[in-house]
TrEMBL record:
Domain annotation SDH C-terminal: ranges: 236-262
NCBIfam families xrefs: aroE (TIGR00507), PRK00258.1-2 (NF001310)
Presence of the UniProt keyword Oxidoreductase in the record: yes
Family matches, as Pfam families: SDH_C, Shikimate_DH, Shikimate_dh_N
Protein name, entry field: Shikimate dehydrogenase (NADP(+))
MF annotations from Gene Ontology: shikimate 3-dehydrogenase (NADP+) activity
Species whose genome carries this gene: Noviherbaspirillum album
Oligomer and partners: Homodimer.
E.C. no: 1.1.1.25
InterPro entries: Aminoacid_DH-like_N_sf, NAD(P)-bd_dom_sf, SDH_C, Shikimate_DH, Shikimate_DH-bd_N, Shikimate_DH_fam, Shikm_DH/Glu-tRNA_Rdtase
Reactions listed under catalytic activity: shikimate + NADP(+) = 3-dehydroshikimate + NADPH + H(+)
Active site: 65 (proton acceptor)
Length: 269
């Protein structure tokens, strides 16, 4: 069986082994997928050991996505745009880096939630690594406008400028957000500490979907706030399953059905 795994620190909490085991059963692929704890100062040597052991690829999670980007000898366009790598493919000694987080988010919104982005107004909250990873896949759906809003406005300005050639992207601080959006995506790390990014309620337009990249057994504070102001909400569990499916496709050349795997994970949260 071909070997894969997820490299992180910590990694014990990762759901990726369960997800990929389910994908492998479903598609009858002979593969194993392990949790791989790398020392904080030992990401590159961990990857080299995996290659020596004949691993075919790996996912990369916190805090190694930037190091994976630096280590990869070849990068997909979307990894280049994201500035981070969550998927490594080992090809005869070469290390190919990809990033499936952004396409995972967009697939969960457009396909699973059934909310189109084409011609719509999209608001992205945050300008860190998580936000950067999703900009190009959002712009690929040709929204009317993407606004990136961040607490530190200069970082939103920088991020918007980076993608200026790829679509209609603007930057903002939170306070100046006055108009309504069709989709509002929380890519800040505020939910981690149960904080609410200070968005004015006016951003939640008629029929708005408010999406939090975080997930858990209960709605996040952002989702609760959005619900109070009339928005439909969705958490990031679907993004997790879809990014895994995209990595699986990158390695195995086939796309698993994500619905049953998503339902199984949801039931166990
Ligand atoms: P990640 O990789 O999760 O994106 P990051 O690169 O450290 O982490 O970025 C964190 C993002 O969450 C930033 O946009 C940060 O805003 P600043 O650039 O102003 O720091 C945002 N963030 C974190 N806590 C927040 C809070 N309580 N309210 C609003 N934004 C917050």
């Amino acid at each position: 069986a071909d070997r894969y795994g997820v490299i992180g620190n910590p990694v014990a909490h990762s759901k990726s082994p369960d997800i990929h085991a389910a994908f492998a059963r479903q598609t009858e692929q002979a593969l194993t997928y392990e949790r791989l704890l790398a020392p904080l100062d030992g990401f590159a040597s961990t990857v080299r050991t995996l290659i020596e052991q004949g691993f075919k690829g790996a996912n990369v999670t916190v805090p190694f996505k930037l190091e994976a980007f630096a280590l990869a000898g070849m990068l997909s366009e979307r990894a280049e745009a994201a500035g981070a790598v969550n998927t490594l493919k080992f090809q005869g000694g070469a290390i190919v880096g990809d990033n499936t987080d952004g396409i995972g988010l967009v697939t969960d919104i457009v396909v699973n939630a059934g909310v189109p982005m084409r011609g719509k107004r999209i608001l992205l909250l945050g300008a860190g690594g998580a936000a950067r990873g999703v900009v190009l896949p959002i712009l690929a759906h040709a929204p009317e406008q993407l606004v990136i809003a961040n607490r530190t406005e200069s970082k939103a300005v920088e991020l918007a400028a980076r993608f200026a050639g790829k679509g209609t992207v603007a930057a903002s601080d939170f306070r100046s957000l006055q108009c309504a959006f069709d989709v509002v995506i929380n890519a800040t790390s505020a939910s981690l500490s149960a904080d609410l990014p200070p968005v004015p309620p006016a951003v939640f337009g008629e029929g708005c979907l408010a999406y939090d990249m975080m997930y858990g057994p209960a709605p996040t504070v952002f989702m609760a706030f959005a619900q109070q102001h009339g928005a439909a909400t969705r958490d990031g569990l679907g993004m997790l399953v879809e990014q895994a499916a995209e990595s699986f496709q990158c390695w195995r050349g086939m796309r698993p059905d994500t619905r049953t795997v998503y339902a199984g994970l949801r039931a166990k949260l």
